[in-house]
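How a chain folds remains the central question behind the approach discussed here. No coordinates are needed to read the tokens, only the vocabulary itself. For completeness, the protein is quoted in full, as a sequence line and a line of structure tokens:
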Amino acid sequence: MKLDSKNVRKNFPSLNNDWIFMDNAGGSQIAGPVVSRISDYLLNSNVQLGASYGISQLAGQRVNEAAVMIKEFINARDQSEIIIGSSTTMLLRILSISLGGTFVKDDEIIVTNCDHEANIGPWMDLRKRGVIIKIWKLNPNTFRLDIEDLKNLITPRTKLVAVTHTSNILGTLNPIKQIAEIVHKNGALICVDGVAHAPHRLIDVQDLDADFYAFSFYKVFGPHIAMLYGKRDKLLSIPGVNHFFITEENIPYKFQPGSVNYELSYGILGIRDYFNSIAEDHNIIGDNFRQNAEFIYKLIADHEEVLSSILLNYLNSKSGVKIIGEKTFNKIERVPTISFIVEGKQSDLITEKVDPHKIGIRYGDFYARRLIDDLGLSHSNGVVRISLVHYNTPEEIYKLIDVLDSVL
């Protein structure tokens, strides 16, 4: 079975214009059912939660349903393990404040140099408390994190390892399950940034054995809102950031100051509506949403492999082009976030020449500044990044190639 692009694209109203969207790692287009959910909430249940009257009770049920859906989506054990917030950046900052309050002088944290700054900077700031920060650097020749390097860095003083599931520059799929096993064997915790992973692969936090896992729904065809998963026992054991009368046992609320955005939370359910619709279009009849999502993500991986192979084969054929990451596409090793530089050309000048053709790609460091600096790519204004998702088509790739032929 192949993904039916026509049925997929009909769910995205914004695709019915002249633009081709290939900056999806920065934010995907929003599925129509998500917009419908948000509108429905605002028009029919836009009141404060917690009151005794009927509409308030309805509003509370709707927001609660979003957390139930996320629990199923990522295969968490308990709904209380789902923290909803404005962005992954904000949620990881909150986690660093809360978890950091349990660390003492000379405790150690390991961060990578290939994460988005959201999963580096907040942990780096704990140096003010006397925490020691170690940096797990990727191999600049293979563009991969070497497991042996982690083993050499970790010690009995290590309390946390922060790592990305998929690099938003390299597109590389990191072996989180293997990393988590090493981390836990040494008595530490693992915090995973899954922002660049979630649009392309289904997440199973129990299988990964992640202690904390975060991603943003606006990268997954939804509203501009995010979630942070934490194992229940871990969330109970660390202090919150909410008002003093919000007890330590009150999870996830103690990590949600000001509560959640109600309409955007309800909008998350539109992702479920979208996936279930695609499942129906493809005659997939799962027992539940999670099962439907498993089938769909397999179709997505296959479709994205086709798209990426076309683009990577083209880029590999061009002299002077250097791909930053895996040079060929294998769905087991990478997602279709493809970055490159061109010898003798600034990255910003390349994207500016593509812009008039109404194809949205991007240049820069994408908040992975430390990686760009360590790879010596700052002088070229970072990389050119083409980030694809499943609503992109081969026809769109060929249009981009035609344009790049006149630019590179």
